[in-house]
Amino acid sequence: MYFIGTRGSERVSGAEAVVRGLAGDGGLFVPEFFPVISQEELEGMLGMDYAERAGLVISKYFDEYDGEALLSALKTAYSRFEGGDAAPLVRLDEGTYILELFHGPTCAFKDMALVVLPHLLRKGCELLGIQENILVLAATSGDTGKAALEGFKNAEGIKIQVFYPNEGVSSMQRMQMCTQEGENVSVVAVKGNFDDCQTGVKNIFGSEECRAKTKERGYLLSSANSINVGRLIPQVAYYFSAYCDLVSSDQIAMGDKVDFAVPTGNFGNILAAYYAKRMGLPVGRLICASNKNNVLTDFFRTGNYDSRRSFYRTMSPSMDILVSSNLERLIFELSGRNAQVTAARMKSLSETGKYSVTSEELQSLRTEFYADFTGEDDTVDCIYEYFTEYGYPMDTHTGVALSVAARYQEKREPLDPVYPMVVVSTASPYKFPQDVLYALSGNDVKDSFKCIKRINLLTAMKVPEAIKSVRYKPILFKTTVSTAKMFDEVLKFI
Ligand SMILES: *Cc1c(COP(=O)(O)O)cnc(C)c1O
C-alpha cells in the first residue's frame, strides 16, 4: 500500500510515510485507498486476542512489513498492559458501553499506538536502508509525551525529545514526563499552550535549515504525534476490536451498527474511527465530543473552522486544542481527495486562522458526525452521576464524551435509528486525580497522591503501577524555553 500527501502529489511507501512523519509540503500522509475488512474477516476476528486483531488491521495498510515480526511485536507490547486485555469493553447499561483504552504503560489511550510505533519506525528504517539515527520529536498536551517516552526509551538508533506546554498539563502528567528514565530521552517545557508547542515542532519539521543541521549530526527527524500515520493506523484496530467484543458477548448481531463517542482534541482518535468505518465496520454516527475549547463543535455545525478565539485551560487538558491537525485528513476526504483544495484551506488556516467547507461538504459531514461540547460543571456532574448510579469511576476526558453522548441520545429525533453507544475512555481516572476526586466527592485536595488514595478508598479501583511508582522518582528534567528556542534544545540534545 502506498501513502499520498494531503496537499500535493507525493506518493510513498508505508515505511517512508512513517519515517518521515510529515510530507515535504507540510501535508499529512494518508493511505492511497481504504483497504476493506470483509464480514468473513470480521467473523474471523471474533476468536482473536487484541494483538491478533491489531495485527490484521495494521497489516492491511503496512503490507510491506513482515507480518510475523509485526504480530510478535504486538503480542509483546500488549501483553504488558495491566489486566490482560488491552482494550476491554465495559457494559454500563442497556446500549451504553465504555471502551477502556487506558491499561497501557502510561494509563492513557496514546499507549495503544505508541507501543507499536517504535517497531514500525525501526523496521521502516531497515526497509528503506536508512543508516542515520532517528530523532523523534513530539509536541504533547500531556499524554502523548509520556507514552512516546515509554515507547521509545532505550530504543537503539533512536532519540526522543518531548515538548510540553509549561502551564497546560496536569501535575500528574508533568511528574510522569519529568521523571522519565532512559538513555535517549529529553523533556522540555515550553512557554505557551499546546498549539504553540505543536506549531513549534511543525516549524522545525518544515525548516530546511533545521533538517540540514540535524542531518549534519547524523539524525533524521521523525514525529510521534498523530500527524504520523504510524500513530493513526494502530488506533483503527480498537474500533474493530470493540465491535467484535459486542458481537462475541451477544450484545449485537454481526452487521448491526454502533455509534462511537470520542473525547476529541487533535482529531486523531475519532479519525481512526472514521477510517474503521471506511474499511467496512458497521458504524452509525461518530460523536465528536469537545470541552469548552469547542472549535470542532462550531465547525461541524457551520462548516467554518475558526481558531481565532479564546483558549481555555480545562480539567480535560489533553483536549485543550484550537488547531486540530488531523482534521486535515478528513477535509481531504471530504473534498473528494482534492490536494489543491486541501492545500488552499490549510494555507488559509495558517495565514488567517480560519477556513470554510462548502454546504454540500457540510451536509455530508453531518451524516457521519455529530459534534457537541460540555463545560466543566456538566463534566463534573456526569462523573459524579455515573459513579453514584453505576459505581463506575471515569476520568475527566471520558466524562466529556459520556456527557455529550448522553445529550445526543436525549436530543435524537423520534425517527432516528437507535444504535448501541460505545464511549471511548481515553485515560485512567488516576491520571487526573484532583479533578476526579473533586467530581466524585466535592473535595478539593491539592496533593495528587492524597487524591489518589482517596479515590482508591471511594471506588476500590486498583491504582495502576505506573501511577504509584511516579511518587518516589527523581525529577530529571527542569528546562523551560520559549517557542523561539525550541530548536536550540534539539541541538543541545543530539
Ligand atoms: C490525546 C487525548 C485525547 C484527544 O485525542 P485526539 O486523538 O488528540 O483527538 C483525549 N483524551 C485523552 C486522555 C488524551 O490523552
Any key phrases for this structure?
494 residues, 47% helix, alpha/beta, single chain
Outline the secondary-structure elements:
Layout: E1 2-5, E2 11-13, H1 14-20, E3 29-31, H2 39-45, H3 50-61, H4 67-79, E4 89-93, E5 96-100, H5 110-114, H6 117-128, E6 133-139, H7 143-152, E7 158-165, H8 171-178, E8 185-190, H9 194-206, H10 208-216, E9 219-223, H11 229-248, E10 258-263, H12 268-278, E11 283-290, H13 295-302, E12 304-306, H14 327-334, H15 339-352, E13 354-356, H16 359-368, E14 369-373, H17 376-390, H18 396-411, E15 421-425, H19 433-441, H20 448-459, H21 465-468, E16 480-481, H22 486-493
Parallel strand pairs: 5-15, 6-7, 6-9, 7-8, 8-16, 10-11, 10-15, 11-14
Antiparallel strand pairs: 1-2, 1-3, 4-5, 12-13
The chain binds pyridoxal-5'-phosphate (PLP).
Write a structural description:
This protein has 494 residues and is of the alpha/beta class. The longest helix has 20 residues, at 229-248. The chain is globular. The strands form 4 sheets. It has a 6-stranded mixed beta sheet with strand order 4-5-15-10-11-14. It is built from 22 helices and 16 strands. A hairpin with a 5-residue loop joins strand 1 (2-5) and strand 2. The protein binds pyridoxal-5'-phosphate.
